[in-house]
Amino acid sequence: MSDYPYNNRTFQILDAAEKGGYAVAAFNCYNTDGILGSIKAAEKMKSPAIIEIFPWSMHFHGPEFIKFASEACHAASVPISLHLDHCTLEPDVYKALELPFDSIMVDASSHDPEENIKFVRHIVELAKERGITIEAEMGRIVGGEDGVPTVDMESLYTEPELAAEFLERTGVHFLAPSIGNVHGPYPPGGPEKYWELDRLEKIKKLSPSAILVLHGAYPIIDDLMKKTIEIGIRKVNLNKNLHVVYLEFLAKSVGKLEMTQLQEKSIEAWMAEAERNIKLLGSEGKAA
User: Origin, by domain of life (predicted)?
Assistant: First the structure.
């Protein structure tokens, strides 16, 4: 593993984004429609991408679905990796290490900070043996998402000095800081009120080589998103952004279209929104 992590697919995608000054869309997918729609959109836009699934899929769909997702990503005509998002339970982390993920987010952010560091460092060491890279959260990104606990809006923000220490002590490859971003709906004022871009700037200044990830990006505010990319965000997790469009299409089309048409058209609806986000993040044409 002398080339690790440079031979890892997720690291290659995000390292190129860091060098190129753009961000990569990480699409949270719950079924084959999401996976296929994301891959087709990335190929059409000649863009790298990341397919993300939750631990729920490991249990509900099973390992064969994970293998399908991995093979679909790796067979694409553009660089696409498979990432496990928000793995909060220790048994799930160990299970994921035996599956064909390119990267895993180990979410121990609700634990004591020292416990978080020790656990993440342990998983980084195990993952290295398998060629898998690790993302972790520093601070607490509030709100609720599938498999992610809900906590009060009085969040634990990422302290820039502690983030630098966390990166050094854990050896983690990608860091998801808490800058006021929220999983799920924002309180009144939205991202414009709560995102602390000066905090993000200081995190990047103190850890210039860190590859930074943005969670809680719904609703997307285009100008605000562009500012985070200018500061140093390289991976943007997209969940509800895509599913609102996809589910709205299904709601008005079920019973009106044949099943084959319904799947094709729903994937087209997903693709249209995915393409819009790819353009916004600046990764269009980066895989040409």
Answer: Eukaryota
CA distance to 10, 55, 57, 124, 240, per residue, from 7 (Å):
9, 25, 26, 15, 31
Which pLDDT score, from 0 to 100, does residue 1 have? 57
| Amino acid identity at 267 | I
Instruction: Measure the CA dihedral 169/174/177/182, to 10°.
Output: -140
Number of neighbouring beta carbons within 10 Å of residue 50: 29
Which pair of structure tokens corresponds to residue 281?
Answer: 């993040």
**Which pTM was predicted?**
0.94
Q: Which of 33, 85, 92, 102 is catalytic?
A: 85
Catalytic residue flag (residue 3): no
The tens digit of pLDDT for each residue in 142-188 reads: 554 454 444 454 446 899 999 999 999 999 999 999 999 988 788 88
Kindly give, in sequence order, each residue whose CB lies less than 8 Å from that of residue 91, ignoring residues fewer than 6 positions away.
none
